[in-house]
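Hi there, hope your week has been kind to you so far. For a while now I've been wondering how a particular protein folds. I'm sending you its amino acid sequence along with the C-alpha cells. Could you read through the record and tell me how the C-alpha cells relate to the sequence? Take your time with it, there's no hurry, and the full record follows here.
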Amino acid sequence: MPRIKICGIRTFEEARWAVEAGADALGFIFVPYSKRYIKPETAREIILRLPPWIGKVGVFAQESPKNVSQIIRGCPLDTLQLHGNEDPRLYHHLPVIKIKALSLPPVPDSASDADPTSQSFLAQFRGLPPASLHGILLDSALQGMAGGTGAPLPWHTPEFQDLLRRVKNLGYPLILAGGLSPDNVLEAIRLTQPYGVDVSSGVERDGRKNREKIQHFISRIRKEPPL
C-alpha cells in the first residue's frame, strides 16, 4: 500500500484534517510565487503542534542551499523536496531526506533531448552520492506551472510506461503526483505501482483544502487497495 502525502498545507486545521484521515506526510510549500506558499514561521507553528511519526516535507524550487538550510533549521522538517532544476548534489550536506521532482508535460516526447523522458536528462540521477537523493517524484507541468496543476499524467500510454520503467530502473523509490484525485487515484496506483502518492489540488474546493475530499482520497487507498 503506497504512502500518502497531502501537499500545500497552509493552516493547522488543514493539517489536522489530513492527520486524522490517515496521511503519512504533509507538504509545506516554500516557493514564494506558488498560490500555496506558506511562510516558514507559520509552517513552524503548525509543525510543532503535529503528533509524532508524521512526515514533514518542505517543497522548494530554485532556492539556494543556504536559504533552504536556514528554513530547515527554523522548521523541524524531515524531508526536502526539490521542485526546480536544482542539482541534488548541492544539497547533500543537509540532514534530511531528499526527493527530486521531475515535472513532465501531459504528453511526454521521448525524442526530445530537452524532455525529462530523454536518457540524457535521466542520466543526471545515476551515480549520485548516497546522501544526495532518496526518491524521485513525477509531477505534471502545464502552462508554465511545475506542480499543483490538477492535470493528470498519461499513466496508461506506452510513452509514459516507458518513462516509468526507466525512472524505476534508477533504483530510487517513486512517488506519483500530477492531477491525482479521489476519482482516479486507484487507477493511477494500479498503472504505476508507486512507493507513494502526493496530492494537492485534487483534495481542494475553491482553491482551499477540503476535509471531505481529503478523507475520500485517503479512504479510497486504505480501504480499496488496487489489485
Summary: Residues 3-223 form a domain with the TIM Barrel fold (CATH 3.20.20.70). DSSP finds seven helices and ten strands in the chain. The first strand starts at residue 3 and ends at 6.
